[in-house]
Structures are given as structure tokens and as C-alpha cells.
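fold-stage: in
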Amino acid sequence: MFDRIAPVYDAMNRAMTLGLDRKWRRLTAQAAVRPGDKVLDVCCGTGDLALADRAAGGRVIGVDFSEQMLVRARRKSAAVDWVRGDATSLPFEDATFEAVTVGFGIRNLADLEEGLRELARVLVPGGRLGCLEITRPRGVLRPFFRLWFDGLVPLAGKVLPGGGAYSYLPASVRRFPGPEDLADAMRRAGFEEVGWRLLGGGIVALHVGRRS
């Protein structure tokens, strides 16, 4: 599925977020990455968050299991090492990275807590995880969210070549924990000082935690 949507991935991200996804990635990188850090961007897709990590001063490796996503990431930069791999079984030794980032990808893992434990494994003690993810809004934004993600996003995906796979997105968001639950899952996986804030009118959450 991700190979099929690779040609429209960037265009859909811009459309779904009204172009704000680039700002959100920049904020994620700034929250997690320090100049000189060795950084892993997991579920890197076409590479936008990995490039934000590099702009924040990191020495970056991007990992994704979709080869077609990586093809497009490699076109954007030769300064990042792009690696095909599984986020729940990363091809790196323990305590390899000072920072890990993941943007709009953690919800796609078959086992969320297994994936978070794997991210903790490759971080040095005190290393930082920055996680950017869609969450379920409450209150007045909830009807808008349902209209956008249950109606307009799948419809837009069907118009674009290969974009029909975006019909999976509303279901994946509904299954995903709310921001408080994700923070608790990070703590169970070995992170401390976990904090989060809502971006994008409460539809997107940025979580940051330190490996214990």
C-alpha cells in the first residue's frame, strides 16, 4: 500500500494539512534534535522529517520499509543515509542514537508498544524521542475532523493516482490512542519526562520523551 501511495504522498500531506505539515516536522526536529546528534528518523517516508532533523544539526539516518518511499527520499538528499528496514526490528545496535524522530508513522505499527520499546532500545540513556502524530480532537473540532478524515481525505485520495489507499487513514486514526494514552505507552516502553502538546487546532500532537 505504501509503495502505491508513494507518488502522491507529498501532495496528499500538503493537501490534508493545508501545508502545515512542514512546520510541524520542523517543530518536532527542534524539540528532539541537538546539533551534532546522531539521529534516526523512523517510518521516514519520502524524507521530510529526516531533512528537518538534518536542518536542526543532526547526522541523520532515515528508515522505512517502503522502497518506493525511499526512492523519493533519495532524490531529495544524498546527505542522509536512507535504509530499508522494519521499525519493530531495527538493524542497529543498542544505544546507537542520541535522538529518534517519527512523523505520522507510529500509528501504522502492528504493535505500538513493541515499536516504542524498539525505539528506546536504539537510543542512548537520556536520548530523546520526538513523535508527531494525528490524534482525535474533542469538542467543537470533532465534527470538522469527522468530515475531513472520514469524507474529504478518502475522496481526495481516490482522485489521485494510487491515492485510493488513503481510505485506510480514517480507520487507522480512530484506532490510535489519544494523546494521553500515547504518553502512557511511551512511559511503559521506557521513556521518562514525557510531555506533549497539541498542534494544528488540536488534530496533531507532538510528544517528546527521554529514554530512561
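fold-stage: in (second)
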Amino acid sequence: MLESPPALIVFVNELRKSIRALFLTIIASTVLVFFLAPRLLHVVQSHLAEKLYFFSVAGPFLAHVKLALFGALYVLMPWVIAVFLKAIGKPFQVTRNQLFGFTFFTCLLFYAGTVFCYYITLPFGINFLLGFGSEELKPVISVGRFVNFVTIFILAFGVIFELPILMVFSAKIGLVTRKFFSRNRRYALLLIAITAALLTPTPDIVNMLLMGGPLYLLYEAGIMILLVMRIP
């Protein structure tokens, strides 16, 4: 009797089926979105009252390329998520209906996280950091670094909002149990506090709570979802 291949090999083989098409689509979409990059820059700069500067000849061009890549990834994220979940679910025999549910809620939480970051956390962070300026300290902000800061931070919020999906999936495949999450709330709270301290753009308690609070609520939501789904 032949043994089934390791889960990692099944995952990689399944991922290879779609990764090339996905990569080419992201590149093509980046080229198309590049022409909208000036408008995207205006959008990400809306929370910043200061002007942006560049310190190299290629600075503005590279900033627009980064914005175009960010825009392409943001729009294509449902496909990226679907490809990844299909590949990771293959070794564990995840059904098509289950895969659709995981993909839908993963996309929903990702976009919820990015919107929450853009409208709530990011303005507080920028205002706090620029609050250290004075008559002697005038901000001269690089367009490249500002684009890096905003886009990476928004994407990071989208990823960390996937916590309930990670909890449900890990319990569904038998990696951990619902009781494990329930028993270890104090450790989860500690890890969430550390994560919030590391990822928030400012060290103040307000911004830490703006990330840590929703993360803990998502953790509790994950436990409730497991309870409703009757996953032990």
C-alpha cells in the first residue's frame, strides 16, 4: 500500500498549479494600476498635513511603483487568498464548500482590517509621531519611506485580522482544540499585547489598544465560532 505524500509536498505541488498565473497577473495589474498611482498617493497622503519630498532622482518613480504594486495586491487579494487556502487545504481534505467559506471570511476580515487601519489607527499614529515636531524640528518626510510605512502597515493589519480564521482552521484539521484556546486566554492576551507593541507605529497606550483591543475581540470571536461549529 502506497503512503500518502507529506502535507508540505502536497501543499507545494498544489500551489505551483496557480502561482505562475497569479504572479503574471499581479505584474500586469501593477502596470495598469501604475497610471492611477498619483491618485493613490493622494489617498494615502490624506492623513498627512505635511508635504512629501524625495532625495533621489528615481525616488518619485519608485514610490509610484510601490503604490501600484500595493494597489494590485489589494485588488487581487481574494484570488491570492483563494490560491493559498486551496493549496493549504489540499493535504487536509478540505471540502469545496468549506474552502469557499474560509475564502469568503478570510477576504472579509482582511479588508475589515485594512479599513480599520486606514481610518482609525493610521491617523492616530501619524499625528502622534508628528506631534514631536517643533519650531526647531521641522518634518521633512521622504515619499518613498512614507509609502513604505503606510502600505506595509495597512497590509499588516489586514493579515493580523485573520486570527479567527487561523484558529478555526487549526482546530478543524486537529492541530489544536477549542479548549486549548479557552484555557490559554492569559497567554493569548500577553502575545496580543506584545504584537500590538511591535506593530503599532507609536509606543503610546492608545494606539496599542487600537490594535490589541480588536485582536482580543477577534480571539474571543474565534472561540465562539468554534463553539457554534461544535468543534471540540
